[in-house]
Design goal:
about 80% helix; mainly alpha; about 475 residues; single chain; Serine Threonine Protein Phosphatase 5, Tetratricopeptide repeat
Length: about 475
């Protein structure tokens, strides 16, 4: 094979040399039509399109009625974005020979480039009426590539579908249709297509897989799992079927079964971070944080710069109340994204658990800056301030939170509690009454941050008065 390639390369060099001599009027040799085609293709492959154009025109001076050379010229003109010139050349080529597949492929491309999609579709349909068998399938694959280049993605799907209607076991088409179904959302059409294929070819594992993927695209997870199981029954080492089945089982919250499917993926293919991450997620949902952490660490080994994985490891430590270890992981994540709200929230909670109040407040304040309209962000900060005994700051931030969140009554309760903490009971009672009038069910939030409330006689009287008022 090496000798054959070397001979072919030497032959091409001879052709190029003879071509250069002929251009200068020095050579006495003769180049055949197909030799000129090779020269043109060579320049195209080298992206020397001006030289390719010169060679195509030189060739047509010698073979003016060659349809293949005209098609090559049009191809070069398209590369140079001279679409109208290419259209005219292709019309000439069609008069000479209308049975060349490349003629129709380039015509479709020209019309798409000229933003004439209806004309492109007309040529497409005309070509399908002319070719059969392998030629038709080749045409459809080539047209699919053209439509892809011009972002006519639904046409790409149609081309691949048409291949399968002509040749239901075509592996290339079966692989491609799965991607294009997902990309275009043509799940219903894909289901009909693959159900039809499976009626005649029930042992096509790819057809079963594609059927499952289409069901999964419609969130019909039970049906998707059934289809994947058929695929696996036919081909027990079908790793993508196990992978997709694992995802479908996760969607159905069947985490133990999902783990079994994902474990099978790890046995059949090289290690993948996304699989380990999915397994970690399953273990988390099964309340097995140590096992989850083990899987996340495997994912980190393969994807070391992903801060989210470090965050997920920190969450498992948080679940186990291992605050210091959680902090080490979350600080690693924060080095890459220091203002990420979820990371700062977890860090703040961990520092608060350790009684390191300043660090806790600093992180939770960053969460508030990132999500100023979110009540939960303010609530985390203010409750931390209460725990730290900083009632003055809690009072201040309660007022800020009330304004920022559109007057949420929760923050009236917090402000009331802060005034009691500051030994200003009169103002505390005033704000508590306002809170009770707006949202009496949130009283429990007040009691959480001010558990000694019932030791204040005036406060107890206010609560009793309010309860009597509500009973009428």
């Amino acid at each position: 094979m090496g000798e054959s390639f070397s001979e072919d390369k030497d032959n091409l060099q001879e052709l190029l040399l003879l071509y250069e001599q002929l251009k200068k009027g020095q050579g006495r040799g003769y180049l055949e039509e197909d030799s000129f085609e090779r020269i043109i293709v060579y320049y195209q492959d080298q992206e020397q399109f001006k030289k390719a154009l010169e060679a195509a025109r030189f060739a047509l001076e010698r073979f003016p009625y060659s349809s293949p050379l005209k098609i090559k010229l049009a191809d070069v003109l398209i590369a140079l974005r001279r679409f109208r010139d290419a259209k005219a050349v292709l019309e000439e080529a069609a008069l000479l020979d209308n049975r060349d597949i490349n003629l129709y492929i380039l015509q479709v491309e020209v019309f798409l480039a000229l933003e004439l999609p209806i004309h492109a579709h007309t040529i497409h349909q005309e070509a399908l009426g002319l070719f059969e068998g392998e030629e038709r399938i080749e045409l459809l694959f080539e047209l699919a590539d053209v439509y892809d280049d011009y972002e006519e993605y639904e046409r790409v799907f149609e081309c691949i579908r048409d291949v399968l209607e002509s040749d239901p076991t075509n592996e290339e088409a079966l692989y491609k249709i799965c991607f294009w179904t997902d990309f275009t959302g043509q799940n219903e059409e894909s289901i009909r297509l693959h159900q039809s294929i499976l009626e005649d070819f029930p042992y096509s594992e790819l057809a079963w897989f594609n059927l499952g993927a289409a069901y999964q695209g419609l969130k019909l997870y039970e049906k998707a799992i059934d289809a994947y199981q058929y695929a696996i029954a036919i081909e027990e080492k079908f790793d993508y079927a196990y992978r997709n089945m694992g995802d479908a089982l996760i969607r159905l919250r069947r985490y133990k079964e999902a783990l079994e499917a994902l474990q099978r993926v790890t046995e059949l293919t090289k290690p993948e971070d996304v699989i380990f991450e999915a397994m970690g997620f399953c273990y988390e949902r099964l309340k097995q944080p140590a096992q989850a952490r083990s899987q996340y660490r495997k994912a980190v080994y393969l994807r070391p710069d992903d801060s989210l994985l470090h965050y997920k490891i920190a969450v498992t430590y948080h679940t186990e109340r291992q605050w210091e270890r959680a902090i080490r992981q979350i600080e690693t994540a924060l080095k890459r994204f220091p203002r990420q709200p979820d990371y700062n929230k977890l860090a703040g909670e961990c520092y608060a658990r350790l009684g390191q109040w300043q660090q806790a407040v600093d992180h939770l304040a960053l969460v508030v800056r990132s999500r100023p309209k979110t009540a939960a962000s303010w609530e985390a900060l203010i409750t931390c301030l209460f725990q730290a005994g900083d009632h003055a700051e809690a009072c201040k931030q309660s007022a800020n939170a009330f304004t920022a969140t559109g007057n949420k009554p929760l923050f009236l309760y917090y402000r009331a509690a802060a005034f009691f903490g500051l030994s200003q009971p009169a103002q505390g009672l005033e704000w508590l009454e306002k809170a009770l009038n707006q949202a009496p069910k949130l009283l429990k939030k007040f009691m959480e941050v001010f558990p000694s409330a019932l030791q204040h006689r005036a406060l107890v009287d206010l609560l009793a008065k309010h309860k009597r008022r509500r009973s009428f």
